[in-house]
Amino acid sequence: MNSLDKKLVVITGAASGIGEALAHVCADAGAYLLLADIDSQRLKTLAAALTAQFKNTGTSQRVLTQSCDVASEADMHALAATASLEFGGADILINNAGVALVAPILSGKLVDAHWLMDINFWGVVHGCRAFASQMHARPDTVIVNISSIFAMLSLPTQSIYNASKAAVRAFSDSLREELRVSVNSDDAGDKHSIHVLCVHPGGIRTRLVEQARLGDITAMAADTDSLNQQFKRIARTSPEQAAMAIMQAVSKRKTRLLIGADARVGDFFYRLFPARASAWFAGLLRRQGRNGRSGN
């Protein structure tokens, strides 16, 4: 991975999981950090750990934190204002904040569906809109939007989650073209292109399922414990591995990244059998759930 020396990396959902791992990876590469999360206490703990890391290496403190709800457009504009005021603007924006919902679409609560879409999709939109103008003014900037392999593969009880991640995928593809500045265009001026990377992780060992809102989950698991165990069986990739892969993709200016063997296999089957891949994957998870309940 290329050096991020004195580059400002803004990370939402930074207090745990992939976001926390990204903060450490970027710190090791010399980046300045602006970390945002709705969980201000965990964010303070992370900031303290990073500050200690900087002191141990003899470098000055390069991290700011800000409590932020990505579902709030005002919060995201406030975060962008901090980036501009304190650092002169963002070089890399990572829209990482996300939540999960496991519930059938017909019996699930619509308020939960709106809650998830406000964070997983509108949070990404708010971030891109808030930061684009300052990033257009800087060279070599990158926006990273975290989608999922479930943008391609859809599962029972996860229709809203699937929809949110598919929306991020489509939004990122369109945004990439909108933020591409032609040097020959009449309105180019001093504007620079903003590169857009869309990331599709498979199972990552995070607290996503533990923190999910749950409805009737019997289509996928017998109970909450079974659901958590099922997730742990398929979540083979660590947050640290995911973070390294993301930042390597940023340095190589990739437009699309699949993380984990499960994501690569799932994407392969989706492209080969688009009408059957979701049914195949759902059946595989059901069999794993039955095997887990029987003790195999």
From TrEMBL:
Keyword line: Oxidoreductase
Superkingdom of origin: Bacteria
Gene Ontology CC, one term: membrane
Oxidoreductase recorded as keyword: yes
InterPro entries, alphabetized: NAD(P)-bd_dom_sf (IPR036291), Sc_DH/Rdtase_CS (IPR020904), SDR_fam (IPR002347)
GO function term, MF aspect, one: oxidoreductase activity
Record keyword Oxidoreductase present: yes
Family classification: Belongs to the short-chain dehydrogenases/reductases (SDR) family.
Protein name, as recorded: NADP-dependent 3-hydroxy acid dehydrogenase YdfG
Lineage of source species: Bacteria, Pseudomonadati, Pseudomonadota, Betaproteobacteria, Burkholderiales
